[in-house]
Amino acid sequence: MVNNTYHSTKPRKLEYEEILASRLTEENALTAQRHPVIGVLEDIRSLYNVGSCFRTADALLLQRLVLTGYTPHPPRKEISKTALGAERSVPWERTEDRLAAVKSLREEKYTLWGLELAEGATPLDKLEEIPNRIALVIGNEISGICSETLALCDGAISIPMYGVKHSLNIAVAFGIAMWHLVTQMKTDEDRSENTDEQG
What we know:
18% strand, 7 strands, 7-stranded parallel β-sheet, alpha/beta
């Protein structure tokens, strides 16, 4: 039996002009208030994965991306192909020095988490509290986050896997983890506002 209580009417696909009318322009996106979440891409080898992470960062209005190690960076047509121009609307910076990048974020008072299969990693669906400012490190497609970087992280999170494979494509994993962090952060903010109003 299908539960139809969620939609009171049949869904209608939006026209392209309707979608555009509800979106930020590239110029507005660069000055908009962004979520205090940073993505750190360490030693990513695929330009297409980097482009996809830019697109996710734009969709979720992340604070910025930090590209470290040998992670490729714009301008590259392969990045633009999957980013669909998001490399122009997402603030980003690049440094080859992985450890300097995470140390700098710590100085900015960001909590550092690694998205990694690590001992003591908290499954994404078991997170109970999201820090106010968080930097999520995601590592190389094969080897993951380097040990030295992981040692500088405050903790690690993982995505529960229910099938045969133990991992996802890094761009997919980045999207899942970032969506969860941002929506959980917004939920926590809403709860806090409601508590303040009731108090």
